[in-house]
Amino acid sequence: MPSKSPKSRESKELKNNPHTKQPSSEIKESQAKNTSQLLNVTIAGINAVQIVIPSDLAKGVLGTVASILITVQSVIKNKSNFWVIVEKCKTIGEILKRATKDTTDNNLPGYLAHALSELNLLVDDINNKVVSRKKQGWFKSILSVTIDRKQIASWEKDIDSALKLFNARLCDST
Questions:
Q1: How many CA atoms within 13 Å lie on the side-chain side of 130?
Q2: CB under 8 Å to 169, separation ≥6 — which residues?
Q3: Among 86, 103, 105, which residue's Cα sits nearest to residue 46?
Q4: Beta bridge partners of 76
Q5: The whole model's pTM is what?
Q6: CA–CA gap between residue 126 and residue 134 (Å, rounded)
Q7: Which residue of 12, 49, 109, 146 is surrounded by the most CB atoms within 10 Å?
């Protein structure tokens, strides 16, 4: 049986050690407040970009991204675990604004249409899983649910990969 890495053991020991300082409730409240502010600003920014870009496909991607963030904002207990996802969603908005500012769906270059479609599939999948979790949580706890940190980290990697692909296609076209 493989042994756990020393770092993994240390981390577990620190978490379970009663003498280890855990974040105070003030720190947790501050993190939650900062995350809520970031969510508000990011949702507003995405909604603003949605208004100015002409591509319906890009608007759809941004609408789904906003939906994910609104669900996180209103229902998810562990909002602070979504910090990186929120930042990546902000990046999606910035990239789509830059990439589609002068294009409609009718004149989207093939590489851009494909990249947008891939991004759309990814954010739809994440949104469906977040909404599904929300529905499951509805029966358990009327007000809020928690999403596993490993699942969030997996979404972070997926979004990061999609953004790298999207950026690579944009760079290849210029």
A1: 28
A2: 111, 112, 114, 115
A3: 86
A4: 145
A5: 0.71
A6: 12
A7: 49
Contact 144, 76 (CB under 8 A): yes
- Taking each continuous run of H as one helix and of E as one strand, the counts in the chain are 6, 0
Q: What is the pLDDT of residues 112-129, one digit of tens each?
A: 888 888 899 999 999 998
| Secondary structure of residue 76 in the 3-state scheme | strand
* CB atoms closer than 10 angstroms to residue 14: 12
Six token digits for residue 25: 């409730």
Residues contacting 79, CB < 8 A, separation 6+: 32, 35, 36, 39, 72, 73
Computed from CA positions of residues 69, 72, 73, 79, in that sequence, does the dihedral angle turn out positive or negative?
negative
| Nearest partner of 91 among 61, 60, 112, judged by Cα | 61
Tokens 């870009």 belong to residue: 53
Q: What is the pLDDT of residues 55-92, one digit of tens each?
A: 999 999 999 999 999 988 887 777 888 888 889 899 99
User: How is residue 51 written in tokens?
Assistant: 């208004």
Judge contact between 145 and 76, C-beta under 8 A: yes
